[in-house]
Design brief:
- It holds the Pfam family HpcH_HpaI.
- This protein is of the alpha/beta class and 253 residues long.
- It has one domain: Phosphoenolpyruvate-binding domains (TIM Barrel), CATH 3.20.20.
- It contains eleven helices and eight strands.
- The chain has an eight-stranded parallel β-barrel with strand order 1-2-3-4-5-6-7-8, surrounded by seven helices.
- Strand 7, helix 10 and strand 8 (226-233) form a beta-alpha-beta unit.
- The longest helix has 17 residues, at 189-205.
């Protein structure tokens, strides 16, 4: 029940992960057994809602992996339910201000650190009461990453870095570019400047960063200080393999 992903990140390791978009427990097992020991279950853009996404944690863990949940929103009820149902690592989208980040942090931690609602003895997070000191340890086991994906939040990066309970700022480059009217133009100088500015501020104020693999590969992102890099997703892996297989038969049809 300990959060291995949080420990790895906080120890300075750059952890690589893959997205789980299709919502299939079989696909989750295949991906973990194929070497992706951290999967991010996407309940924002993926095929499953929060409840089915939380059930996928079982498949990931049973295969020997660790699961992170991208919740669909930052509402208190959403975050509380995700944590109670056994999500230890959360990726929270569209956190566009320090005030919003402060609320997210509070929703995810028990008092006195936060205001998470208490039901520890009866929830999956505590093994339905088997982890008897869960409430005493939960604040140290939860891992919360807030997505930095709007130009409006850039002036608040230093303030977010100082918020207890925020473990990572996760840059969403395409949404960030879109908020600057440069969607899918990640090499635009203004977008590059915005991202490098976030990196510099985060480094200066001790905010751990994560992002997606894309314009820069895993090695370059690790050297730039990123400690979580999410790469491929099951949709693209399947469609890419299907296209490649179809191309191999092109001489026969």
């Amino acid at each position: 029940m300990k959060n291995g992903l949080r420990r790895r990140v906080m120890a300075g390791e750059t952890v690589t992960a893959a997205w789980l978009e299709l919502g299939s427990p079989e696909v989750a097992e295949i991906m973990v057994r194929s070497g992706w020991d951290v999967l991010v279950i996407d309940c924002e853009h993926g095929a499953v809602g929060l409840e089915d996404g939380l059930n996928l944690i079982r498949a990931v863990e049973a295969a020997g992996g660790e699961a992170m949940i991208r919740v669909p929103d930052a509402r208190e009820a959403t975050l509380k339910r995700a944590l109670d149902r056994g999500a230890r690592s959360l990726l929270v989208p569209m956190v566009n201000s320090a005030e919003m980040a402060r609320e997210v942090a509070g929703f995810c931690r028990y008092a006195p650190m936060g205001r998470r609602g208490y039901a520890a003895p009866i929830v999956r997070a505590s093994g339905y009461g088997a982890w008897t000191d869960y409430a005493a340890q939960a604040n140290e086991e939860v891992f919360v990453a807030v997505q930095i994906e709007h130009v409006d939040v850039i002036p608040d990066i230093a303030e977010i870095a100082a918020i207890p309970g925020i473990d990572m700022g996760f840059i969403g480059p395409n949404d960030l570019a879109g908020s600057m009217d440069r969607l899918e133009r990640l090499d635009d100088p203004a977008v590059v400047e915005a991202i490098t500015g976030i990196e510099a501020t985060a480094a200066a104020h001790g905010l751990t960063l994560g992002t997606i693999e894309g314009q820069r590969d895993y090695g370059a992102l690790a050297k730039a200080g990123y400690r979580l890099v999410i790469g491929p997703n099951d949709v693209m892996l399947l469609s890419g393999a299907a296209r490649a297989a179809a191309e191999r038969r092109s001489g026969l049809v």
